[in-house]
Design goal:
By secondary structure, the protein is α/β, with parallel strands linked by helices. The protein has a domain of about 150 residues: Alpha-Beta Barrel (TIM Barrel). Helices cover about 45% and strands about 10% of the residues. The protein has ten helices and seven strands. It has a seven-stranded parallel β-sheet. β6, α7 and β7 form a beta-alpha-beta unit.
Length: about 220
Amino acid sequence: MDYVGINQALVYHAWAREYSPAKGNSRLIQEIAGQTQLTPCWVVMPHHTGEFPPPAQLISMLVAKGVKAVRIFPSSAFHNWSLSEWSSKPLISELAAWRVPMFASFNQVSWDNIHTLGKAFPTLPIVVTEVRYEELRHLYPLLEELPNLHIDLSWTIVQFGLEALVERFGPERFLFGSRMPIFSAGPALCYLQYADIKDEDKQLIAGDNLRRLLGWPDLISSN
């Protein structure tokens, strides 16, 4: 991060993806304690099997631990749970009620999933990460229809693609992403730095958009 000039990062633990969400989340809080550059993101799943707390209790835990966002891995290759209403509604509706940003890798969800969730829960900030450049023809109608949809730019590297997206939808829907530590941050950083867009738009994408989304706990403290 220091080498490429990234001052802050939203991070989750590999254990939470590959092994146990609960154990990985706990390990994350331990490992980043005192490291102000790193903001925790918990991996979550529905509570039905008892592996996770009920949604209202989960929100309280997020606030207590300073967790500003959540991530899901519902595919059969990972945590194997359904985004359909009969399974996910208690969890998703609680996240939406407090506007907790929910991150999902492109290989974990379908565009139909995103459309359904975005329509059913308009107050839920949805961030789809690692969107491949071939997906732009799906992305345009979804961004048009879902004001709560955001995209990270870690893999959406298209010649003049960011310029076209910002001109069409404004800069507020896009977040800088790097896919670190698996990939180098250089390509995504270069893509943003040299984009032919306003400097203030670059600032929003580089960090201010994410900071705005991560401000959801203020809703609780103000109530």
